[in-house]
């Protein structure tokens, strides 16, 4: 059974619709101008569509894929009306995401002796990393999981304090040390404590400063090495948190972190306050790493499990 498996409720679907409203309005406003006065999908419409997709932060590489798919479809079907473009786009984006989809569930390790499921959370300062950890802790606890937090972002006292606030709010234990402590030491203590407490899930915060590649690699490698003294196959997930409102900066951060360490899942936050939600399409396609969560609001339940079909449905709902 997947640790992250979740079924969409009507309330969650409405939140997703509302959270993507700015992105959707901006996208369809640009699309409407691109096809104004056009009766068919010709080269000029495709050029304008390419500009719309890139300016909506879908990303150049993914945009080219989408345009190529539509060009092939136009050539095959001979005539496609400009009024059909919404339907065509929806189908091609859904198909692209489905084609790039990897298994979006992380399954609990099937050991005879239960061990905690360890998630390391990485990302630069300001993307909503610690808040994402807090919301995940709340959701896991609500699902009946026993959760332990680890404050391994020892570079900033504020990061430790913020995670402490979330631990108190959610009422889950936290393992922490003083600012400046060795992050690997905190990670070791956290997984050791989680084993003793028979915990189900461990969420470990890590330093959010923008490392150079070597320092980041060394730090995360050390954290993994010491944790594996307690749980041999830890971590089970390395989750990179990205701020969707930064658009192309989110792509750049994803490039840097995936080059420095093995990222196994993504969470894209702050989509409700931006028109740059198209970045989720590009990131999902380009990095071949599951986008597991998206943030569509401030409330705890507004961190949603990413469902590609529901996302495309909300994106194109008018």
Briefly summarize what is shown:
Its main location: membrane. This protein has 318 residues and is α/β, with parallel strands linked by helices. It is built from 12 helices and 8 strands.
Strand content: 5-15%
Give the integer mean of the pLDDT values: 87
Distance between the termini: 35 Å
Q: What is the helix content?
A: 40-55%
For the sheet with most strands, the description reads: 8 strands, mixed
Function: Involved in targeting and insertion of nascent membrane proteins into the cytoplasmic membrane. Acts as a receptor for the complex formed by the signal recognition particle (SRP) and the ribosome-nascent chain (RNC).
Membrane topology: Peripheral membrane protein
Keywords: Cell membrane, Cytoplasm, GTP-binding, Hydrolase, Membrane, Nucleotide-binding, Receptor
Protein name: Signal recognition particle receptor FtsY
Would you write up a description of this structure?
The protein has helices at 10-19, 21-35, 43-55, 60-77, 85-100, 129-142, 157-170, 183-196, 213-227, 248-260, 279-287, 308-316; strands spanning 117-122, 147-152, 174-175, 201-206, 237-243, 265-269, 291-295, 303-305. Mean pLDDT is 87; it is low at 103-112. The protein is elongated and about 65 Å long. The longest helix is centred in the first third of the chain and has 18 residues, at 60-77. It starts with 9 loop residues before the first helix and ends with a helix. Helices cover 50% and strands 13% of the residues. The protein is of the alpha/beta class. Helix 2 runs antiparallel to helix 3. It has twelve helices and eight strands. It has an eight-stranded mixed β-sheet with strand order 3-2-4-1-5-6-7-8, sandwiched between helices. 47% of the residues are buried.
